[in-house]
Write a structure and sequence with these properties.
The protein is α/β, with parallel strands linked by helices and 184 residues long. It folds into 2 domains: 8-105, no CATH class; 114-183, GMP Synthetase, Chain A, domain 3 (2-Layer Sandwich). It has 7 helices and 6 strands. It has helices at residues 8-12, 19-27, 32-47, 77-80, 84-91, 114-124, 161-172; strands spanning 58-64, 67-73, 95-101, 129-137, 143-152, 176-183. Strands 1-2-3 form a 3-stranded mixed β-sheet, with helices on both faces.
């Protein structure tokens, strides 16, 4: 693998973590699922070099409800598709989706541009319609965003509002509050 959330040594060590990876696990930056997925990816890469996993990047996993999202490198979805069944079977994951991280935003700690933020929010509120995003300046000096989403009566968002907000925060390192307007 070109990039993993853990170091290669920890992904191969069967549960033993170096000091750096252990600190990241304790702080929540790294999860046990990230470690398990990294381990399986390396096993698959070694067992089948033709899969081209050695040229792929896996940044992190995000668990929401019955959905697991893998953040991977831009343009690498096809490389990861053969991995889905094995991950589902070995880790008992019901549904796996991929999100491609662009090269400009490969640093997961960096905030994304407002344009990229709007695109990410828009992708996750479908079949709803993103009406707009407003930047809020808080008295603490921090800032966050409010996304206004319109959905038709009877339609549902793909995830609950708190899980949408959590997913967007994980992907963009930006707090976005979702406001939903239901129309006839």
């Amino acid at each position: 693998m070109k990039l993993l959330p853990t170091c290669i040594t920890c992904a191969k060590s069967d549960g033993m973590l170096c000091e750096s990876c252990q600190e990241r696990l304790e702080s929540g930056e790294l999860t046990n699922l990230d470690i398990d997925i990294s381990e399986i990816m390396l096993e698959m890469e070694e067992a089948n070099p033709d899969m081209k996993l050695s040229e792929a990047s896996f940044f992190k996993s995000i668990e929401l409800e019955r959905l697991t999202i893998l953040v991977i490198g831009k343009g690498e979805t096809e490389v990861f598709k053969p991995v889905i069944k094995k991950l589902q079977r070995e880790l008992q994951l019901s549904r796996i989706e991929f999100i491609e991280k662009s090269k400009e935003s490969s640093d997961l700690k960096a905030r994304v541009s407002e344009k990229e933020l709007k695109n990410i929010v828009n992708d996750f509120v479908k079949p709803g319609k993103l009406l707009g995003i407003n930047k809020l300046f808080l008295p603490t000096g921090d800032d966050e965003y409010k996304a206004r989403v319109q959905i038709k009566q009877g339609d549902r968002l793909p995830l609950s509002k708190p899980n949408l907000e959590k997913l967007i925060k994980e992907l963009t390192n930006t707090i976005v509050r979702i406001e939903i307007d239901v129309v006839q």
